[in-house]
Amino acid sequence: RSPVEPGRPYEVVVDLWSTSHVFREGHRIRLDVSSSNFPRFDANPNTGFPSYGERGAAKVVARNTVHFERERASYVELPVVPHSP
Predict the structure, then answer these.
(1) pLDDT tens, position by position, for the chain (85 residues)?
(2) Whether 48 contacts 3, CB under 8 Å
(3) Helices in 1-85 by DSSP H: which ranges?
(4) What gap in Å lies between CA 11 and CA 50, rounded to an integer?
(5) How far apart (Å, rounded) are the C-alpha atoms in residues 39 and 49?
(6) Is the pTM of this model over 0.90?
(7) Is-contact 60 45, C-beta < 8 A?
(8) Rounded to a whole number, what is the largest CA-CA distance in the chain?
């Protein structure tokens, strides 16, 4: 839990808990990249300080990047579990 360095790629592992979905032929998925999930969680002011209190008034815009370079391409890895009809 330390500030990230702008422009430097980081690996982010997201635990989706016990989430599952059946994707049938022709289905597609969409991935939304965000640095917040308000109102489920407190808003992230992107300053390293909580969104409340004296330092909470300041907010910084977060810039998320999806990388396409071969050496560090962004990806989503989804496990496939055999499904019986």
Answers:
(1) 677 888 888 888 877 777 778 888 899 988 888 777 778 877 788 888 877 777 767 888 888 888 888 888 888 888 788 877 6
(2) yes
(3) none
(4) 23
(5) 18
(6) no
(7) yes
(8) 57
